[in-house]
Design a protein that fits this description.
With about 325 residues, the chain is of the alpha/beta class. The chain is built from ten helices and 13 strands. Helix 3 crosses helix 9, helix 6 runs antiparallel to helix 7 and helix 7 packs across helix 8. It is globular.
Length: about 325
């Protein structure tokens, strides 16, 4: 029997299956490409060939598209990324005190005190240092993103790059290239700059203590790991499933939820073949004039979101969380 976690982000959609011992049995990484519904359906098409509906005992969702995903698959629990990343990290190592998480378009820091989240912060303005920014720079330099970190660790002379803003960082990199600096030195300088930016913004005022986990897709970049270790003066650990920690935490929480109530809301893998449509309307209930988005399958409305007061969405969310 397995338990599912689905993390729908702006750049990627991750699905994890775990067993009774919280061991990862399956992990799927799919580019969201602006269509979270299609991304989830594509992941389910892959899973449908290997697993039956009855094997899935619970399902949880997280990420920026967690509510859409919950309506779609029939989630048993819906949690934010702070909670799911913390749960996954603590499952791997109870001594984790700080979680650095950098994904496709956002970054966050989570401070843990004896296994409890005591503080956290997220970037709110600039995407410098996120996965999408690094992808762009790798493409511009003609280097596969998988090799980006290798170039950084080969550098013997880090070039100073302005990292406070994605636009300024790219402009500074181009200027340094025009001056003839080596690519490895420029990439090392970029990694150093992005770590400085992260620590002075997202990590500002935070009590960063070891043991430190680095999670998210950017943790694959050896240059970023090395830059964090140099800046913090201690070892930074990259867990095995760093790319899918949100989905892993969601699966663990879903398992705990279903153990309490003895049944699941999971709709099954046939969701992959359903025709899902969305439509929106402007609510006239008050002066806010919210644009409410409705998700429909062939037979009924699965859920609503976009309303500020919860008039339309609350009944669907409560049904999922409290059922």
């Amino acid at each position: 029997m397995y338990y599912m976690g689905v993390d729908v982000g702006s750049v990627s959609t991750d699905v994890v299956l775990i067993d009774e011992n919280n061991t990862v049995i399956e992990q799927i990484y799919i580019r969201t490409k602006g269509s979270p519904i299609n991304a989830v359906q594509n992941a389910f098409k892959t899973l449908k060939e290997k697993y039956s509906d009855k094997q899935i005992q619970a399902a949880g969702t997280t990420g920026s598209g967690r509510h859409i995903a919950s309506y779609l698959i029939g989630a048993d629990i819906v949690k934010n990324e702070i909670t799911t990343h913390s749960v996954a990290a603590l499952e791997i190592d109870k001594d984790v005190s700080t979680i650095i998480e950098i994904g496709g378009q956002d970054s966050k820091i989570i401070i843990l005190n004896r296994g409890i989240v005591s503080d956290f912060a997220m970037n709110t303005v600039c995407a410098a240092g996120t996965g999408s920014f690094l992808d762009r720079q790798a493409e511009r330099l003609g280097i596969p993103i998988e090799e980006f970190g290798d170039y950084a660790v080969q550098s013997n002379n880090s070039v100073r790059i302005a990292g406070r803003c994605a636009v300024f960082a790219e402009s500074d990199m181009i200027h340094k290239q025009q001056l003839g600096y080596d690519k490895s030195d420029i990439i090392k300088g970029l990694c150093d700059a992005l770590v400085r930016n992260y620590l002075s913004n997202v990590g500002k005022g935070k009590n960063i203590q070891s043991k430190i986990f680095f999670q998210g897709g950017v943790a694959t970049n050896k240059g970023m790991v090395a830059a964090f270790e140099e800046a913090l003066g201690c070892k930074v650990f990259v867990p095995k499933y760093h790319k899918v920690m949100g989905a892993l935490g969601s699966a663990i929480l879903a398992k705990e939820k279903v153990k309490e109530r003895k049944y699941t809301n999971f709709k099954g893998f046939n969701v992959a073949d359903m025709e899902i449509k969305t439509k929106s309307f402007e609510c006239k209930g008050c002066s806010n004039g919210c644009e409410v988005v409705m998700i429909n399958d062939e037979n009924a409305t699965l859920g609503c979101f976009g309303d500020r007061c919860g008039k339309w969405s609350s009944s669907y969310v409560e049904k999922i969380i409290n059922s």
